[in-house]
Amino acid sequence: MSNNKSKDKLSRRTFVKKAAFYGAAGVGLFGLAATPLLKRDTGDSFKDLFQKHYKKLDEEKLKIILKKLEEKTKKQYGADVRIDADKPIKDVVFGYALNLDVCIGCRKCVQACVEENNQSRDPAIEYIRVLELDKGGFNLEHAEHNYDHEVPLEDKFYLPVQCHQCENPPCVRVCPTKATWQEKDGITVVDYNWCIGCRYCQAACPYDARKFNFFKPKIKAEEINPRQSYLGNRIRPAGVIEKCTFCIQRTRKGLMPACLEACPTGARKFGDLTDQQSSVRYILENKNVYVFKEELGTIPRFFYYFD
Amino acid sequence: MKKNIFSFISELFLNMFSGSKKYRFWLLSLGALILIGFHFYCRQLATGMGVTGMTDQVSWGFYISNFTFVVGLAAGAVMLVIPAYIYDKKSMHEIVIFGELLAIASVVMCLLLVMVDLGRPDRFFHMFPIIGLFNWPSSILTWDTIVLTGYFLLNIYIVFYLLYMRYLGKTPEKKYYIWAVYISVLWAVALHTVTAFLYNGLGARPFWNSAIIAPRFVASACVAGPAVIFLSLKLLGKYTRLEFFFFENATRVLRNIITIALSINVFFLLSEVFTEFYTQGMHTASVHYLFFGLNGHFALTPFIWLSIILNTTALIMLYIPKLHGSDRAFTIACGLTITGIWLEKGMGFIVPGFIPTPLGEIVEYFPTLTEFLITLGILAFGLLVFTLSIKAVLPLVQTPRNIKIL
Fold first, then answer.
1. Cα–Cα distance, A140 to B358 (Å, whole number)
2. CB within 8 Å of chain B, chain A residues 223-252
3. CATH number, domain at A264?
4. What's the mean per-residue pLDDT of chain B?
5. Are residues A186 and A252 in the same domain?
6. Taking the model in full, what pTM does it have?
7. Any chain A CB within 8 A of the CB of B118?
C-alpha cells in the first residue's frame, strides 16, 4: 500500500500499530465492564454445560447427574435432599377434576403446592392461580386475581387455574429445543437443565401455567421438601421455566397431588383416566363438566364440574 | 502487488479503519454505547432476568419488540433488489449493495437481541441441529433460526462476490450471483413472514392470532428498510465528498416504494382495528387496552397514538404533490415513519399481546434502564457493523465506472 497517496489512508504498518493499541484498550475496557460476571453463580461447572437432554441420558449417566444435583442442593441451599427420576407408571394417564360448586377460594391448594414443589419464595412463584369471578358468567376480564379478604363471598365463585396437562399442548409445540414434552402418563414436563429460557412456551400457554425463574430461587433450608424428582419439584436453576407436573414426585409413587390433599372442601379429584373405576372417570361420565377454553383445541386433562 | 482474496480482505480492513477525526469520533461514540450495553448485560447475567421489566404476565418486552422491528429492516433492505433486477433499473444497482449491507448488520442485531432475551444464553447451542435438539418443523422459532442464518449467508455471499469482482476489475458473471439475488428477495419475504408466524400461530393470544399480521409485517418492512437506506445515503452524502450519480434516480424509486408500502401498511392497520372494534367480542380486550386503556390502565395508549400520528403525517407529506421535489420533506417523512413503525412494532404489537393475560389479568410493562441500555448497545453495535462495512466498500463503489458494479 506504499504507493497509495491518499492522506486518509493508513499505511499497513501504522494500521497494525494502531490496531494493536486500540485492540488492547478495547479488551481492557470490556474486561472491566464484564466484572459483574464474577458474581454470577449458576452452580454449573464447565462440564455441566454439556449435559445431554434428559431423554438421551442412559441410566448410568442419569444416576451420576442426580447425585451431583443432590450435592449441589446441599452446597447452595444447605439441605439434604433425595432426587429421583420417577418414570411414568405403565398404562396410566392422569386426569384432574375440580368441583366449582364446592371450591371456596381459600387458596390452601396454592400454599400446599408451593411447599411441596420447592418454588422460589422470593420472588414468589405459584403454579395455581385462584380467580374470583362474579356469579352469573365466566367473564375473566372482571376476575379478581389478588383478592385479600374472607372467603367465600356471597356473590362470587372461585376458579383455580393450573396446568391443564393438555393432550395437544401448544407449549410443547413451540419449544425450540424440545426442552419440554409430554410424558406417557400425559404430564407435560420440563428438563430444567436443557431449557434455554426463551419463554416462547409462556406466550403459547392459554392457561398462564408456566412460570419463569427471573432470579435464582430463594428458599430457606428448613422449608425445602427433601423428596424431589428430576422432572418435578427439584429446585430449579435461574433463567428457566417451571410448571405444575401434577406432583409427579408423588403421583408416580401412587400418592395424591399436594393441592388435592390440602383442599378442605374435597373439591379436587385426581386419578387415572384409563381406569373405569376412578373418581375422575365417574365425574366425566356423570356430571356437568366444563372444559376451560375448549375452543382452542388444547384438549385439557383438567376438568371443572358442577354438582 | 498481486491481487488475491487476502489482499482484498486486508484492503477492506484498511478502508474500515482509516478516516477523518469525525469518523473516528463516531466509531468511538458507538464503541462507548456498546461498552455500556455490554456492562449492563453482564449485570443482567449475574443477577437474573428480573432486572428487566418483564414478568410472568408480560414475558416478552423491549428485546423482542426491537428484534421484530430490526427483522423488518433486514427484510426491507433487500426489497430494493426488486426494482433493481426484476424491473431492471440500472440506477438502483449500486444502492442494492447498501441494502445488503444493512441487511447483514440487521441480522447481527437480531441474533444479539434474541440472545440477550434468553434466560440461559450459555445453553443457546441447544437451539441448533446436531449439537442441540432442533425442534423443527414444529417450533416456528427454529424456522426463524433457519431464515435468519440463511439470509445472513446469502447476503454476505452476494456482497462479497460483487465487490471482489469489482476489486479484481472483472465484470461479475451473472451465473455466479443472480440466483442468489432472486433467492434473497424471496428469502426476505420469508424472513418477515416467519417472524410474523412466530406470534401469529398462538391461539392463546387473540391479539396476535390474526392473518393480517404477516402482510402487515412485510408492508411495514418495505417502509422502514428503504427509509433507513435513504437516511444513511443522505448522511453519507453529507459527510463524505462522494457524489452518487445514482442518487436522484434512486431517491425517486425509494420514494415510490415507501409511499405505496406505507399506504398499504396504514390500510392494513385500519382493517384490523375495524374488525376488532366492530366485533366487540371478549377477544378484543388487548386492542381496547392498546388504543383506549382498560380498567384504568393506559401505559401503551400514548405510544400507539403517537405511532399513528407519525405514520399518517409521513404519509400525507408523501402524498402532497408540492412536496415531491423536496428532498428535505422526504427526509423528514422518512424519519417520522421509521419512528412510527418502531413504536408500532414494539409497544404497539409485542407488548399488548400479553395484556391482559389469557386469564384476564392486567399487568403493565415498561422497560427498565437496564433493558434500554442493553438494547441501545445492540443497536449501536449494528450501526457499527453497518458503518464499518460501508466504509470498507465505499472506495470500491466509487472507483471510476468502467465496470458496472453489478
1. 8
2. 237-241
3. 3.30.70.20
4. 90
5. yes
6. 0.94
7. yes
Q: Which long-range contacts (CB under 8 A, 24 or more apart) does B235-240 make?
A: B236/B390, B236/B394, B239/B22, B239/B23, B240/B394
- The grid cell for A184 is 406417557
Q: Answer whether the bond into residue A123 is a cis peptide, omega within 30°.
A: yes
Alpha-carbon span B193 to B198, nearest angstrom: 9
Number of inter-chain CB pairs under 8 A, A vs B: 194
Residue type, B185: V
What's the pLDDT band for B83 if we cut at 50, 70, 90?
A: confident
pLDDT digits (tens, 9 = 90+) for A200-248: 999 999 999 999 999 999 999 999 999 999 999 999 999 999 999 999 9
Q: Do residues A144 and A289 share a domain?
A: yes
C-alpha cell at B309: 400520528
Q: Domain range holding A126?
A: 94-306
What ipTM is given for this predicted complex? 0.93
Q: Which one, of B102, B106, B191, lies nearest residue B146 by Cα?
A: B191
Give pLDDT tens digits for A100-121: 999 999 999 999 999 999 999 9
Whether residue A306 has pLDDT greater than 50: yes
Residue B50: list chain A partners with CB under 8 A. Answer: 123, 214-215
Q: Which domains does chain B have, with CATH numbers?
A: 5-398 (1.20.1630.10)
One domain, residues A19 and A113: no
Do A21 and A104 share a domain, yes or no? no
The answer to whether position A71 is within a domain reads no
